[in-house]
Design a protein that fits this description.
alpha+beta; 6 helices; 208 residues; five-stranded mixed beta sheet; single chain; three-stranded mixed beta sheet; globular
């Protein structure tokens, strides 16, 4: 901020997307605390530009198939800034609601119980054989991909550079690809040239 006030061009770089568990939020917090307001065209105004990037859930999903094709959410297991009871409540809610979930910051050298507790909460609502993909260092030199199940998830090699993708009730793994169906099979019959099923109409809400 001080350098920007001196007229310098300043870049603050974070991995993934700056707005997803990145530095965009803390940057604005600091700016607002310092009395900053968005530029109004006056000399000396400091302009802030957020450059979008690819978050870990995007890169990891691309490497394992198409696990995020339906509704999903991201939850960080780090309790350094968020109380664990808050995180646990969110985990339980999304597990029950059958979201595909991307777990960020799943485990560190000193923080090991959170991934085990997350597994326990998910097993309350999901089958033990629910597909899980663990991607470490996506698109980096030490990239590693492991396909496992919810029952065996916590036994895997997981660290701070890992992202854990937990499937929903429809997610499957086939030929090394993790896929969450979008739901086209509910309305269309692929074996009949994608004609609509009985009682369904193209462009209309799915009948329930």
């Amino acid at each position: 901020l001080e350098r920007a006030r001196q007229g310098r061009k300043v870049a603050l770089v974070s991995s993934g997307d700056a707005g997803v568990y990145g530095m965009a939020g803390p940057t604005f917090e600091v700016l607002f605390q310092a009395g900053w307001t968005p530029p109004s065209g006056k000399p000396g105004d400091i302009e802030v530009e957020i450059v979008p990037g690819a978050s870990a859930l995007n890169t990891c999903a691309a490497l394992v198939g198409a696990p995020l094709t339906h509704d999903f959410c991201a939850i960080s297991l780090s309790d350094l800034l968020t109380p664990w009871p808050v995180i646990a409540r969110r985990l339980d809610a999304v597990a029950m609601a059958d979201f595909v979930v991307a777990l960020y910051n799943p485990k560190s050298g000193r923080r090991t119980r959170q991934i085990v507790e997350a597994q326990r909460l998910f097993l309350r609502h999901r089958r033990a054989d629910t597909p899980v993909a663990i991607v470490k260092s996506a698109y980096r030199r030490r990239q590693n991909i492991v396909f496992t199940t919810l029952a065996q998830m916590a036994e895997q090699d997981i660290g701070m550079l890992s992202t854990v993708l937990i499937g929903n009730g429809s997610t499957f793994v086939r030929d090394g690809l993790m896929v969450t169906p979008r739901g086209y099979a509910n309305k269309y019959d692929a074996g009949q040239g994608f004609e609509t099923r009985d009682g369904e109409k193209a462009g209309r809400s799915l009948s329930t």
